[in-house]
User: What shape does this take?
Amino acid sequence: MRLKPPLAPMEARSVEQIPAGEGWQYEPKWDGFRCIAFRDGEQIFLQSKAGQPLARYFPDIADALGGLPERYFILDGELVVPVSGALSFHELQLRLHPAASRVAKLAKAHPAMYIVFDLLAENGQVFLQYTLRDRRRFLERFGRSNFKAAKHLRLSPTTTDYGTARKWFKKTGGDLDGIIAKRLDAAYASGERSAVVKVKRILTADCVVGGFRYARGARVIGSLLLGLYGENGLLHHVGFTSAFNKSERRDLTKKFETLKESPGFTGSAPGGPSRWSTDRTGEWEPVAPRVVVEVTYDHFTGGRFRHGTKILRWRSDKAPRQCTMDQVDYHEGKSLALLQS
Assistant: This one.
């Protein structure tokens, strides 16, 4: 039996606490792109979480996998791009470019790394039904035989010690996305969330509302655009929040339409190019930087909240100029050192 792409990866459900007790394996949750790597002879296929091909964007990783002694295998892991000792999600996003020449230039400047945490098949044998305990043993043997000269391929560290997992968790918020816990006695459940959980640290920051976007097809607010002041005194766009109900959207629209005023953000502004850009990315309304809101977030890297934030409370008691980058800068971790541990 030989598995072929696409293969749905085993996924994790979110929980609030790291599970304790026997029978768990803990891993860092890396800030990258999930990738299942297939090799069948000379054929290399890198598959995204959604089943899409990735090899054209990561030729350096495809070449590294093609140079391994083993000629048939399927690996599960995370694509990352290290820059100056930290993982750069911004450089990772830049790889998703249509021009092969541009991708090659990016790969030369900042080579990617494939952090592997599971072995699904090797030399014609499929391991999906084996326990994680066995698969990890097989993976470590595979790594010893294949990764010695492959500097772009690394095994993700693991531990069964709860205390070590908690130490890793304290480093989350920068280039480390959280902690993954997996049942050691579980098989690889493709496309399911039955035996894996993820834990993310929830952090807070006071932000200035520097603009908003209308909802698609309606004259009500769809999202508020958030900013923080840098050392240069400029207000930089750092993310958004959009979890509002219908009545809240109406009230917010009235409030912020009266505050419309250019430029909104005086530093980095919304609308910069990225792989998430749409025809509406540049459409936003600037407002006077008078309103402060405290939001919760799980990840800040590359000068931005990685995901949408959630409003915790409005801060009429706080001056906008007090909303500075130093609230979040210290979360810009350098967790790549875990790969050497």
In short: The longest helix spans residues 132-146. The longest strand covers residues 203-214. The chain is about 15% helix and 30% strand.
